[in-house]
Amino acid sequence: MREKKKSDIAVLLDYAGSYKGLTFSGLALSGVAMILGMLPYICIWLVARDLIAVAPDWSRAADAGRYGWMAFAFSLAGIIVYFAALMCTHLAAFRTASNIRKQGMAHLMKTPLGFFDSNASGLLRNRLDGAASETETLLAHNLADIVGSITMFIGMIVLMFLFDWRMGGACLLAAVISVGAMFTMMGGKNAKLMQEYQAAQDHMSKAGTEYVRGIPVVKVFQQTVYSFKAFKEAIEDYSNKAGRYTVGVCQVPQSVNLTVTEGAFIFLVPAAVLIAPGALAAGNFAGFVTNFAFYAVFSAIVSTALARIMFAASGMMLASTALGRISQVMDAPVLEITDDPKEPKDNSIEFRDVSFTYDGADIPAIDHVSFRAEAGQTVALVGPSGGGKTTAASLIPRFWDATCGTVYVGGIDVRDADPHVLMDRIAFVFQNNRLFKASIFENVRAARPDASREEVRKALSAAQCDDILAKLPDGMDTVIGTEGTYLSGGEQQRVALARAILKDAPIVVLDEATAFADPENEALIQKAFEVLTEGRTVIMIAHRLSTVVGADKIIVLDNGRVAEEGTHDELIRKRGMYSRMWADYNHAVNWKITDREVM
Ligand code: ADP
Ligand code: MG
To answer: How far apart are CA 178 and CA 96, in angstroms?
Structure first.
């Protein structure tokens, strides 16, 4: 069974919604405008007929002036109808583009947050915007012109055979030869050469970008020759392939193409010479001259019509690139939201046989992981880098959904919870928690927009941020990231903690950044942690094992699996992975202290 694929244009038009009819009206009007625009050619024929009939007594051709006015009226009507057509297509195009933007954004709102980790949100938005404006141009102008071109082409063929098929055929011969020449350039074995040429062009522009991007590295490492070489090779490759295609393939066909389209009459004259004696014998010489005059003028349309058809084809390509971009956004996975949300019963968290594999990865990042944190308990996830700690933590707020197994919050599957309820219940402090370019006050208040200044100040204080506020010019109202007010990693972490403290959620998920170097910050962060985690259920990813010692349970994740599980003391006694990590950690800490003493 062969399923018919919907054409790109049809898919784009679906975004027009109720404005689809307007697009079609616009396109129909564009066709009508083109027909009106071609009618003056018939007037030319009529004028020629009348003039030749009365020649040389021109004054007797009383109707000639009337035909002239008719031609003028048709042209004018054509312009007016074309204008109306564009009005329709523009209105529909604006609406369609705005629908694409709206639907795209609505779709992005439903994708899991984790999706933005691997697809920068700005990039997606740009893609959507680009596609929407491409569609706008396509629907507003190109499509109407495509319909116009097709109408023109059909009209041209009709007119060619209307008066004298032999002379019309002579003009058409030019069109046929020209199309044949174009196919020679683009079809058969030459298609491969053309693709190679286009690929080389693509490669060259990418290599150029790479080269520019690499300039800092080049400068630092003085690697001029090497990176320049790739770029230079790409240019040489392009120039070879371009030469091979243009000189080797296009030279002759393109010359033929241009010659016959621009000079379609070169076939008309010999045809007329052949037809003339017959017409003379039949006593219809005036009709012959009329037709010849008409085709001599009309043959000029061949080049216009063909150029427009070429242009139409490139418009179709525009449609498919725009659609490609839209589907990149629209095909993004969507987070399933339940219609019948359940309320979490308590603040416990449980992983039951949970596995998760990232899109495109061969092996799972989390592999059959099970553990449980009772309400109020602190569970620490530790283990080597890449073990799957961050991934496990991201499954709790549904940054991603588990590939198999279930994550429970308060005894219910996270997928059965209302996402807002879930988000309200959990505060996250993630490694890459970014602060916005806004005042510290706004940054913290983002966690709870109805919080008062006093509450924000208290949260900052509890997160040990007093020293940060004291040294900033406008205290809490200082905008981060402007005029040299940059915060160190440890300071940013504390502001992020203040945000979580203000949220005052019963469950806290912490993905602590890799240890910050300075010990002052470390001690302050430790204190802020204590405030944040007190009396709550905490899932903590810690790199400083000293933070983990007091946890109710420690889960050691290695290669996505639970390698060990227990309290600090139990795991030390086990003499497994954790006890080795603990020994390494202490060694490192002691080494630091001795190091310091020596200095
Ligand atoms: P940890 O936090 O323990 O260092 P992660 O959970 O970050 O470990 O990573 C676990 C595995 O998943 C690693 O192999 C990592 O390369 C992979 N991974 C992490 N994030 C992504 C992502 N966004 N896309 C694909 N693979 C990822
Ligand atoms: Mg991590």
So the answer is: 37
Residues lining ligand 1, judged by CB closer than 6 Å?
117-118, 358, 361, 365, 385-391
Residues 6+ positions from 81 with CB-CB distance below 8 Å: 29, 32, 33, 36
Tokens of 51: 């003039």
The alpha carbon of residue 26 and the mean position of all alpha carbons in its chain are separated, in whole angstroms, by 28
pTM for the full model? 0.63
Superfamily (CATH H level) for 349-589 = P-loop containing nucleotide triphosphate hydrolases (3.40.50.300)
* 349-356 sheet: strands from edge to edge: 366-373, 349-356, 404-409, 412-413
The whole-number pLDDT of residue 599 equals: 42
> 8-330: which CATH topology?
ABC transporter transmembrane region fold (1.20.1560)
Do the domains spanning 8-330 and 349-589 agree at the CATH topology level? Answer: no
pLDDT in tens, 494-549: 888 899 899 999 999 988 765 555 677 778 888 888 888 888 999 999 877 888 88
**What is the Å distance from ligand 1's center to 403 Cα?**
15
Domain boundaries, given as residue ranges, for the chain: 8-330, 349-589
Tokens of 313: 């084809």
Closest listed ligand to the CA of 383: 1
Classify burial at 465, counting beta carbons within 10 Å of its beta carbon; exposed 0-12, middle 13-18, buried 19 or more: buried
Query: What is the side-by-side order of every strand in the sheet holding 378-382?
Result: 426-429, 507-511, 537-541, 378-382, 553-558, 561-566
| Widest CA span in the chain | 123
Ligand 1, from 355, 391, 399, 512: best to mutate by most atoms within 8 Å of Cβ? Answer: 391
**Protein residue with its CA nearest to atom 7 in ligand 1:** 390
* CA dist list (Å): 584 to 541, 566, 597: 18, 19, 20
